[in-house]
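=== RUN LOG ===
request id: a7f3
mode: sequence -> structure
chains: 1
length: 157
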Amino acid sequence: MPHVSCSQPVEADIQTIWRVFMDKIENPDRYMAYVKETRFLEDADDYVVREICTEDMSLQERITLDERLGEVRFQLLNHPLFSGEVLHQIVPPALEASGENIPSAVVKVTMDWTPKNEEAKAVERTARADIEQSIEEATLYIKRMAEQLERQKHLQG
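=== RESULT ===
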C-alpha cells in the first residue's frame, strides 16, 4: 500500500494514550472491525509476533514497543503482497517554533507498505481510498478511547 498518515490531537495524558496503544495490541478487534481472531505466536522481551485473521486472510506482524519514544511498530511478516509497517506515535505537547504552547499530545498513525508484485499494485490502486479511510478511522478511534479513559480517570480521582 502507499504511504498514508493521519494525526489527531488528543486531550489525554501520554500514559493514557499508551494504555490505548497496548489495548490495541492485545484486542485488535476493538479497533479494526474486520478482525475475527487473534493469536500471539511469539512473546519476547522487546517484541511480540501476532497473527490476525479476517474472513479473507490472515497476516502476521512483529510488534515492537518503544515507550520512551511513544512508538509502536507493526511490521508485516511473510505477507504475499506487501512489505512494510504501520507506526503508531505519540507526539508530546510542545512549543511551536513561534513559542506558542501546543496543549495537546498528538496521535499519529502512519502506514508505509510497499507492493511486492503486480497483484499488489492492482490492490493498491483499487483500495487506496478505503485504506486512507481506515487509517483515519483508526486514528480517530484511538483519540476517542484515550479521551474517554481520561474523563473516567478524572471522574474517579
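=== NOTES ===
The first helix runs from residue 14 to 26.
The chain has two helices and seven strands.
=== END ===
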